[in-house]
Design brief:
Layout (H helix, E strand, L loop, with lengths): L1 H31 L1 H8 L12 H20 L4 H23 L12 H14 L23
Helix pairs in contact: 1-2, 1-4, 3-4
């Protein structure tokens, strides 16, 4: 029974992170922390590292803190929440940084409808170089208008 509860918490956390990614992107990254996110939209540097990567570090700290709460303070939900945040982060990194932005040159030949829709939606988001006007969407769901044949 405990395993079922942990799995449910893990899955719920993973999907809540989709909302958190959308929310933080729309209201934080394109809001009061635009100064950290700007270099993701306008490459005016030669470094592989972007200031935008600090958001990844923030969520890694939250994930690690949850696991520490589980291990050190017996907070039962800490492990499934921490691992759920970590799993979402890995998925996000694979889809956004590797598949879409090609920070590592793999997954270039993925050409199914979902892959095309994600690339198309992200390209539309990135055509806006400024803080305002960038349409935001989730990584796991893509608006149906991008699912063209």
């Amino acid at each position: 029974m405990e395993i079922l509860l942990w799995m449910t918490e893990f899955i719920a956390t993973f999907f809540v992170m989709e909302f958190m990614a959308w929310f933080s992107h729309k209201y934080i990254m394109h809001g009061f922390l635009w100064s950290l996110h700007r270099d993701h939209h306008k490459k005016d540097h030669k470094s592989w590292f972007e200031r935008n990567d600090l958001f990844f570090i923030f969520y890694a700290i939250v994930s690690t803190s949850c696991v520490i709460l589980w291990g050190e303070y017996n907070f039962w939900a800490g492990l499934p929440i921490g691992v759920g945040i970590f799993a979402y982060g890995v998925t996000y990194f694979l889809v956004h940084d590797i598949f879409i932005h090609q920070r590592f040159k793999i997954f270039r030949k993925a050409n199914n409808r979902y892959a095309k829709a994600v690339r198309r939606a992200h390209k539309i988001h990135h055509k806006h170089l400024g803080k305002e006007g960038g349409e935001c969407f989730g990584m796991l769901w893509v608006p149906l208008k991008y699912f063209r044949g």
